Amino acid sequence: MAAPSASDITYMMAHATEDRRPNFITANSICLALAVIAVALRFLSRSLARIPFQLDDWTIIIALAIHIVFCGTMLSLVHFGMGRHVIFLTDVKSFTIIALTAETAYNVAIMFTKVSILCLYYRLFPLAWFKKAVWALGIFVVAYSVPQMFGTIFQCVPISSKWDPTVAPKCIDYAKLIIVCGIINIVTDFLMLALPVPVLWSLHVSNHRKLVLSVMFLLGGFVCIISIVRLFYAQHVATVDPTWDLVWPATMSGIESASAIVAACIPTYRPLINKIRHGEAEENTVQRPTGVSTIGGSKKRFFSRSKPTKRTSGSEVSSGEYPLYDRLGKGNDNSASQGRTPVGPSPGEIHVKTVFHSNAV
């Protein structure tokens, strides 16, 4: 932290009554509450539909735990002077250590949230090309996130040079690191948004249902906007008044992390919505379609009354553990029901499977 000049100190003294603490505390408290509520509703939806916890659920729990650490450290910084000018900073060492912890927690929370979303994608869409894309994107997310964490912690070595002026520091250009990683973060956000769209629009449901499902997944676009705004603020980290100037970047980081967790949980709310609208979490209010649709000329049967075909002549067949229509396409589907009478399956009569032929993907 650079030392303020005499003119800087004069300005701070003249504006000693300025205080951003109330807004800072409110923003972080709301972010914390929203993330906790989002994950709680996710598990309520899982419970209503009797869906066992999967890897995407466990990773979002980790993301929430780290987000709680982030918000807790942010709120604790207020005790040392965050939200007021740096001349009111009471403990430089404690402030610096907690701030580094918060920055690292933000990076970890974002990484686990993205991993959770990718795990959900992997389970929802059992297509060979899609799974490979998810793996590639997941490896890339971890590959840039881990160095970013270490770059944050060791932006200056030894770390004690951040609060001890007698120690000579060796520092990286942390502002450039934030810009580069911020741009990569935004790019991966958009890639994750676009990835499931072509698969969703290949589902054998009405266009209305496809639109609803797409919007449900594309709500994460709000996170992209927050990431862009945060990058605008966060690149200005070189300041002589960090307790005042870094309030907005820190606030935007909390909003981004909370919004990402909420976006990761929204696609899992379908059973809860069904419970509210129809009184039954697992009720399907439309006839299960049994047609064949294509992606790029490849055939795939989404729902079948028969068992999945076995592997024949080198063609590999896999069945999804998370049937797309039952888990995503439930609810009223007007275009699917107009002009024909829904056929209600007898209990236990239809065994719903998701079958994909590998020679088609």
From TrEMBL:
Residues 41-274 form the Rhodopsin domain. The keyword Protein transport does not apply. Its main location: membrane. Residues 284-296 have a biased composition (Polar residues). Residues 283-350 are annotated as: Disordered. The chain crosses the membrane at residues 24-45, 57-77, 97-122, 134-154, 174-199, 211-234. The keyword Membrane applies. It is found in: Membrane. It comes from the Eukaryota. Keywords: Membrane, Transmembrane, Transmembrane helix. Residues 298-310 have a biased composition (Basic residues). It is a multi-pass membrane protein. GO terms for cellular component: membrane. Belongs to the SAT4 family. PANTHER family: INTEGRAL MEMBRANE PROTEIN-RELATED, PTH11-LIKE INTEGRAL MEMBRANE PROTEIN (AFU_ORTHOLOGUE AFUA_5G11245). This is Rhodopsin domain-containing protein. It comes from Periconia macrospinosa.
